[in-house]
Specification:
Number of helices: 5
CATH topology of the largest domain: GMP Synthetase, Chain A, domain 3
Low-confidence stretches: 1-49
Shape: globular
Helix content: 40-55%
Distance between the termini: 43 Å
Number of domains: 2
Radius of gyration: 18 Å
Number of strands: 6
Largest sheet: 4 strands, mixed
Structural class: alpha/beta
CATH architecture of the largest domain: 2-Layer Sandwich
Order of helices and strands: EEHHEHHEEHE
Mean pLDDT: 75
Strand content: 15-25%
């Protein structure tokens, strides 16, 4: 279970992993940043493992290519979880039942920080229709949120 306790400047907050609490005092700004990241990535849950890899199964309903590489990247970049969840929802709202796959590129086992993720939207739509839907996705959701991915995620169309 994860717990976060905040308060005035230099108050302590606790993050519990299992039964081991870790206490540290931080400024209000650091606590706010920690709260934002923890609340978006690790929803408080009494039932499940809150590791980034376990969380991936909860937030991503699409398929995956090379699951092990994808998991390695998500483990090293847990901030992607919230973006992936929203991306899947936003893509489904525009592309309907088209296949949505998550895959890794440029991943080297010894350097997982070098890998990136790609969301591939497999579509049978006409090129102009698919591009129009992607443009809408870009304008309404992806461009306002792209910084959250910190250069670690791209969205592409694959024509099948």
């Amino acid at each position: 279970m994860w717990g976060v306790f905040t308060g005035e400047e230099n108050r302590a907050f606790e993050i519990s992993v299992g039964v081991t609490p870790i206490w540290q005092a931080f400024s209000t700004e650091v606590i706010s940043m920690a709260n934002a990241q923890i609340s978006t990535l690790y929803r408080v849950s009494l039932l499940g493992d809150l590791s980034p890899v376990a969380e991936l199964d909860r937030v991503w309903d699409g398929g995956m290519r090379d699951r092990i590489s994808v998991e390695r990247i998500v483990k090293n970049r847990p901030f992607l979880l919230g973006v992936l969840k929203e991306a899947y929802t936003e893509i489904r709202s525009r592309f309907g039942s088209e296949s949505v796959l998550l895959e890794s590129i440029d991943s080297v086992e010894d350097q997982p920080e070098e890998g990136k993720l790609i969301i591939a939207i497999e579509t049978k739509l006409r090129v102009d229709e698919a591009r129009e839907k992607l443009k809408d996705l870009d304008t309404c959701w992806w461009l306002p949120n792209i910084r959250r991915a910190k250069g670690s995620l791209s969205i592409i169309l694959e024509y099948v």
